[in-house]
Amino acid sequence: MTTTDTAPAIVPSFDSEEHAGRTLAIICSKGSLDMAYPGLIMANAALGEGIETHLFFTFWGFDMINKKTMGDLKFTMLGNTATHMPQGLGGLPGMTAMATSKLKKSSADLDVPEVPDCLEQIVASGGHLWACRMSADMNHLTEDDLYDEVEAIISASDFIEKTAGAQLLFI
Amino acid sequence: MPVTTLAGRPIQVNEEGFLTDPDEWDEDLGTALATAIGITLTEEHWKAIRFLRDDFAEQGETATLRRVSTRGGIPVKQLFVLFPQKPAKKLAYVSGLPKPHGCV
Description:
Chain A has 171 residues and is of the alpha/beta class. Chain A contains six helices and five strands. Chain A has helices at residues 33-48, 87-90, 95-109, 115-124, 133-138, 156-162; strands at residues 23-28, 52-57, 128-132, 152-154, 167-170. Chain A has a five-stranded parallel beta sheet. The radius of gyration of chain A is 20 Å and the shape is globular. The N and C termini of chain A lie far apart (65 Å). With 104 residues, chain B is mainly α. Chain B has one domain (3-94). Chain B is built from five helices and two strands. Chain B has helices at residues 27-36, 43-59, 65-70, 76-82, 87-94, and strands spanning 3-6, 9-12. The longest helix of chain B has 17 residues, at 43-59. Chain B is globular, with a radius of gyration of 13 Å. The N and C termini of chain B lie far apart (29 Å). Chain A binds chain B through residues 5, 7, 9-12, 14-15, 41, 44-45, 48-50, 110-113, 118, 121, 124-126, and chain B through 2, 4-6, 13, 15-18, 36-38, 64-67, 69, 75-77, 80, 84-90, 93, 102-104.
């Protein structure tokens, strides 16, 4: 007499229904280096989980997709008590440059790409980039001034419409 | 830790099903793991799997997608085609390695 092992193999449920149809909308409204990364990293994580992801760049967040500034975002100690340094130091000449290069170095040590490379990876992973109409108009910028992979300049209401039912992150 | 049977032999896995001992892995098992999650392996898949295995042996941790693309030479876009929806986790699973810890 033979026995048969009928226990099912333990296999991860990668394609569970739980996440089917999940969409994430991320509004990036800040233009400093330290506030650019949270949105980019969360977008990347969501895409890696198979979640449809849309980023909307508005106000200072426009600097993240403006060809002139996207590679040169800065980090400053000024007004940021989380650096745990005397605030007066932040105003000294060269401090912002120093803080920026320190942050860039610690990001690079963790293999976190620079902002333009992050955007490139997000697009390669299927993410969607949208620019805010009002921010473009205020800064007299057109699609030619923006990172090539930005799909379009759209109004806030168009973005809200496009991301109906999405979970939303405002940064 | 649970033990499951794949490719006709007992394999130690964690509660999700990822191998807990990378040394229990060989290419036959890789094929069985891929089949279990609905992927038929091609030479392109193997290129990614072999990079992940070699890199893990050197670094002691599973490469992120970023690393597979920059060091392994397989574009991120292609990784999403080869291992749809959740490429980092699926690639690690098929390669018999833990999920990557890195965020990018």
